[in-house]
Design brief:
mainly alpha, Serine Threonine Protein Phosphatase 5, Tetratricopeptide repeat, 58% helix, flat, transmembrane, receptor, ion transport, TRP_cation_channel
C-alpha cells in the first residue's frame, strides 16, 4: 500500500486553495469585461455563480454598473437594476454611473439612468453634479437629454465655491450650454456664487465674450435691459466691465462698452476700469474705452481712487510709459497729487520706473514737487538706484538747470539730503555724480549727522573714502553730530574695522562725545573685539580712560554684557577702577545678573584673583555676592580652583591641587591692603548654607575645604565639646542614681519620719550638691548658646528637632535638681530625672552621629 507524507498533503491542499483564489479573481475581471462588452449571457452566468460579484471594483473603484454606463450598454443596466443593483454606486473619485455616462457621452445610458431613479444631484469629489459636469465638458447633447427630466434636476444647485452650471458655462465660454440652461432649464442668471460673483462677471473675467452675449440677449428677451445686466456689482464692487478689463480680453471689454457699461463706474476702492487698464498697461483697451465713450474721458482722467490716484498715477506706478504719454496727450494732469502728495513723477521714481520718469520730465513734469515726507524726485532717484547722470541730463535738456541745483541740497522732513541717502544706501555712483554736480558734502540733518556719519554708521568704506577725498574731506572728518559723536566714534560703535582704520590713517582726532566717551568705550559697549584691538594698537592710552561717570571701557562692556570684549580688555591689563558710584565692573555684572560677563571676569586666566578680591560698598565680598546671586558662576570658579596633573590617575606623578582662595573671602580695601574688619569664620560656606546652595556645598572643593578645617581644628573642638557633654552626662546619671537609692520600691508611700530622714540624707550629701552645681553651669552655658542661635535664626530655629530636644533636656534637668538646691524633695523630681536621663543619652547618640 502506497503511503503519502503529511507535507505532501499540505502542499496539495495549498495548490487547491490558491487555485480557487485565482479562479475567483478571474471571474471578477470577467464580470467587468462582460459589462463592458454587453454580453448578457456571460454576465448572467457570472452573476448567478456569485451575486456578490456585482459590487466588485476595478483599480479605479468602478463596478459593473459604471462600465455599462460608460459603454452605453442598456441591457446590462437593466439586468443590474432588475437584480437590485445600486444605480448610484460611487467609484474612487465619487462619480456615480450618471457622471460616467456624461463623461463618455453615453446618451441612452444617461436617459435610462434618469428614468429609473438615479440621482442627478449627487456630487463627486470635485463637488460636481451631473449638470455641472455636462456643462464643463460642453456636452450639448447630454443637456438636451437632461432637459427631458427637468423636474428631477435642480438648476440652482451649487458646486465648488457655490458655482452653478451657468457659472461654469461662463467660465469655459460654452455659449450653447448657457443658452440651453437658461432657455430650457430656467437657470437664474442673477444667482451669485459664494464669492459674490454673478455668471456675467465670470464671463467677463474669463474673456468669455460669446457666453456674455448669450447672457445679455437672454436678459433682453426677459425684459431686462443690457444696462441692468452690465451694472451688477460683485462682492468687491466690480461691474462686469472691471472683470473684463482684468481678463484683458478686447472683445469682452468691447461687448461691455457696447452694452452700456460706463467707463467711469467706480468699484468699492473708487477705481474705475480706466485705472485698471492703465495699471495693466493695456493701451488698446484704454483707447477703446476713450473711443467708444469720449464723453466720459475727462471725468475718468480726473477721477481718483481711495488713495487719490488718477489713472496717470496707476500707469506711472507700474512704469507704463506708453500709456503715460497717451494719457497726458489726452489731457491728464501731469502734476496731480495722490494721498501722500506724490505726483506721477515721484510715484514712478519710488517704483524704479525710470522710463516713465524720463518721459514725464520730457513732457514737462514739475521736478520740484515734494511728497508728504518732503522728499523730492532726486531723493527718490538716489534711494531706488536710479542713474543720476541720465536724470541730470534730462533735466538740463528741459532747461531746468536751476531746478537741478536746488534739488541737490534740499532736505526732507528728517533733514537728509540726497547725498545722505546715497551714503546710507551705498550707492557709490550716485555719490560720485552728486559730488560732481555740486552737492554739499558737509550738510547735516536734524540730528547733526553729515553724509560721512551715515557712511561710517553703515560701513560704506568706498563712500567714506570718496567723501574724504573731496575738497572738504579734511574739514568734515572730525565733525560731531548732535550727541557729540564723530565719524570715528560711529564706525567704532558699529564695529566697521576697515572704516576705523581708514579714519585713523587719515588723522582722525580722538574726541570725546557729550558723555565723555572715546571710540574705545563705544567699541567695548558694542563688543567688537577687532575694533578694540585696532584702537588699542594705535592709541594704547585709551584703555583706562574714564567717561563723565568715571566708567572705564571695562565698566561699559560689563553693563552691555559683552564677555568677549571683557576678556580682551583684561588681557590688555586694563585697570580695575571704581566709578563715581564706587562700583567696579564686577559689581555691575552681579547687580544686573549678567552670568556671561561675570564668568569672563572671575574665571580669567590671570586676573581672576584680583577681581575676586575687589571690595565695594554694594558688595563687600565678591565671593558672597556670587553665592547669593549667581551660584552657577561661583561653581565655575570652584571648578577653576581644582587643578589635576596631566597624566593618568594611577601614575606616581598624578596629583590634584586645591586652591581655597575663593572660599576664604578676604575683606580687603580698594588699595589692596587688608582691612580692619574682623573676618567671619567660614563665610563662604555659611553663605552657601544660608542661601541653600546645596550644589556648591557638595562641590569637591567645598568638601575638601571642610575636610581640611576638620583635620586642622574641627575634630579637636568636637572632642572638647564631647568631653564637656560627657561630664554633664555623668553628672546627670550620678545624680539620678543617687536619687533612686532613696526611692526604693518606686513609691513615696512612706511615713513622714522616714521622708524626713531621706530629705536630710540628700541635703547633707556634698556629692549631690557638687553634681547639681555642675549641671546648672552646663545648662546655663548651653542655654545662652541656644538663645543666641534663636536670636540669629528666628522662629525657624524651632523647626529643627535637635533644638527642641536640647530645650526639653535643659528644662527637665533644672526640674530635676531644683528641689535639691532648696533642700527639699518633691514628687515630680523622680519623673524629671527619668526624662533627663533619657534625653541626655539620646543627645549623646545625636552628637556621636555628627
Amino acid at each position: 500500500m502506497m503511503t503519502i507524507s503529511p507535507m505532501k498533503i499540505v502542499r496539495n491542499w495549498r495548490k487547491v486553495f490558491y487555485g480557487c483564489q485565482a479562479i475567483k479573481k478571474l471571474s471578477s475581471e470577467e464580470l467587468v469585461k462582460a459589462a463592458e462588452s454587453g454580453n448578457l449571457d456571460d454576465f448572467n452566468r457570472l452573476f448567478v455563480a456569485e451575486p456578490a460579484r456585482l459590487e466588485v471594483r476595478d483599480s479605479k473603484g468602478r463596478a459593473a454598473v459604471h462600465q455599462a454606463a460608460a459603454r452605453n450598454k442598456l441591457n446590462i443596466l437593466q439586468f443590474i437594476r432588475n437584480h437590485g443593483g445600486d444605480l448610484n454606486l460611487r467609484d474612487s473619485c465619487g462619480n456615480t454611473p450618471i457622471h460616467i455616462a456624461i463623461e463618455h457621452n453615453s446618451l441612452d445610458a444617461l436617459e435610462y439612468l434618469l428614468q429609473n431613479g438615479a440621482d442627478p444631484s449627487a456630487l463627486n469629489d470635485k463637488k460636481q453634479a451631473a449638470l455641472h459636469l455636462a456643462v464643463e465638458l460642453n456636452r450639448v447633447a447630454v443637456l438636451q437629454v437632461m432637459c427631458k427630466f427637468k423636474d428631477r434636476i435642480d438648476p440652482r444647485q451649487g458646486g465648488n465655491h457655490g458655482r452653478t452650471a451657468l457659472h461654469l458655462a461662463a467660465i469655459h465660454d460654452n455659449d450653447e450650454c448657457a443658452r440651453i440652461l437658461m432657455k430650457d432649464l430656467g437657470v437664474d442668471n442673477r444667482q451669485p456664487c459664494h464669492n459674490g460673483y454673478y455668471p456675467i462677471h465670470e464671463a467677463a473675467k474669463n474673456a468669455a465674450s460669446r457666453t456674455m452675449e448669450v447672457l445679455l440677449q437672454w436678459a433682453e428677451s426677459r425684459g431686462d435691459s443690457r444696462h441692468q445686466m452690465i451694472s451688477f456689482f460683485d462682492a468687491e464692487g466690480n461691474v462686469p466691465l472691471h472683470s473684463a478689463v482684468h481678463s484683458g480680453d478686447f472683445k469682452a471689454v468691447e461687448l461691455c462698452l457696447k452694452s452700456g457699461a460706463k467707463i467711469s463706474t467706480q468699484q468699492y476702492d473708487l477705481s474705475t476700469p480706466v485705472h485698471l487698464a492703465c495699471a495693466q498697461g493695456a493701451i488698446e483697451i484704454v483707447r477703446l474705452m476713450f473711443g467708444l465713450q469720449p464723453a466720459e474721458k475727462d471725468q475718468c482722467l480726473c477721477s481718483c481712487d481711495a488713495q487719490k490716484m488718477t489713472p496717470l498715477h496707476c500707469a506711472a506706478m507700474f512704469d507704463r510709459s506708453e500709456i503715460v504719454q497717451y494719457l497726458i496727450e489726452e489731457g491728464a494732469d501731469i502734476n496731480a497729487l495722490d494721498k501722500e502728495s506724490r505726483s506721477p513723477l515721484l510715484l514712478a521714481a519710488s517704483r524704479s520706473g525710470w522710463r516713465t520718469v524720463t518721459s514725464l520730465i520730457r513732457l514737462g513734469a514739475d521736478v520740484q514737487v515734494k511728497d508728504s515726507g518732503k522728499r523730492n524726485v532726486l531723493h527718490l532717484v538716489v534711494m531706488y538706484g536710479g542713474r543720476l547722470d541720465e536724470f541730470a541730463h534730462e533735466i538740463t535738456m528741459a532747461n531746468n538747470q536751476d531746478a537741478l541745483e536746488m534739488l541737490l541740497n534740499e532736505k526732507d522732513n528728517t533733514g537728509c539730503s540726497p547725498l545722505h541717502y546715497a551714503s546710507r544706501g551705498g550707492h557709490i555712483r550716485s555719490v560720485e555724480s552728486l559730488l560732481r554736480l555740486g552737492a554739499c558734502v558737509n550738510i547735516k540733518n536734524y540730528n547733526g549727522e553729515s553724509p560721512l556719519h551715515f557712511g561710517a554708521r553703515y560701513g560704506r568704506y568706498n563712500i567714506v573714502k570718496k567723501l574724504l577725498n573731496s575738497e572738504k574731506g579734511a574739514f568734515i572728518i572730525n565733525e560731531s553730530d548732535g550727541e557729540g559723536l564723530t565719524p570715528l566714534h560711529i564706525a567704532s560703535q558699529q564695529g566697521h574695522t576697515k572704516v576705523v582704520q581708514l579714519f585713523l590713517n587719515r588723522g582722525a582726532l580722538l574726541h570725546r562725545d557729550h558723555k565723555g566717551r572715546n571710540p574705545l568705550h563705544l567699541a567695548a559697549m558694542s563688543g567688537y573685539t577687532q575694533t578694540i584691538e585696532l584702537l588699542h594698537s594705535v592709541h594704547s592710552h585709551l584703555l583706562d580712560q574714564c567717561d563723565k561717570d568715571k566708567n572705564t571701557a571695562l565698566h561699559l562692556a560689563t553693563m552691555e554684557n559683552k564677555p568677549n570684549a571683557i576678556t580682551l580688555l583684561l588681557h590688555m591689563n586694563c585697570k580695575l577702577l571704581f566709578n563715581s558710584l564706587d562700583l567696579s565692573a564686577i559689581d555691575y555684572a552681579i547687580y544686573y545678573k549678567f552670568p556671561e560677563a561675570a564668568l569672563s571676569m572671575v574665571t580669567h586666566d590671570s586676573r581672576a584673583e584680583e577681581i575676586m578680591s575687589l571690595k565695594s560698598d554694594r558688595h563687600p565680598c565678591v565671593t558672597l555676592a556670587l553665592i547669593a546671586s549667581m551660584p552657577r558662576v561661583f561653581e565655575a570658579v570652584q571648578d577653576k580652583c581644582i587643578t589635576k596633573a596631566n597624566c593618568k590617575k594611577d601614575s606616581k606623578q598624578f596629583y590634584i591641587k586645591y586652591s581655597f582662595s575663593c572660599l576664604q573671602c578676604p575683606f580687603v580695601q580698594k588699595c589692596g591692603t587688608t582691612g580692619t574688619i574682623k573676618p567671619t569664620p567660614l563665610p563662604a560656606l555659611n553663605a552657601m548654607v544660608v542661601h541653600g546652595r546645596v550644589e556648591l556645598l557638595a562641590h569637591p572643593l567645598s568638601q575638601k575645604y571642610l575636610q581640611m578645617k576638620w583635620n586642622t581644628y574641627g575634630k579637636y573642638f568636637h572632642l572638647a565639646h564631647l568631653l564637656f557633654y560627657t561630664i554633664f552626662l555623668v553628672s546627670v546619671t550620678l545624680f539620678s542614681s543617687q536619687l533612686m537609692v532613696y526611692n526604693h520600691n518606686s513609691s513615696f508611700n512612706i511615713t513622714n519620719d522616714a521622708l524626713l530622714t531621706v530629705e536630710n540624707n540628700i541635703t547633707n550629701a556634698a556629692t549631690l550638691k557638687t553634681v547639681a552645681v555642675m549641671i546648672v553651669i552646663y545648662v546655663f552655658i548651653n542655654s545662652a548658646r541656644e538663645g543666641i542661635q534663636f536670636y540669629q535664626q528666628g522662629w525657624p530655629y524651632l523647626l529643627d528637632p535637635t533644638n527642641v530636644v536640647a530645650i526639653l533636656l535643659y528644662f527637665s534637668a533644672i526640674a530635676m535638681i531644683a528641689p535639691n538646691l532648696t533642700n527639699c524633695l518633691l514628687e515630680y523630681q523622680i519623673s524629671s530625672a527619668s526624662i533627663t536621663v533619657f534625653l541626655s543619652w539620646f543627645t549623646l547618640l545625636l552628637n556621636l552621629q555628627r
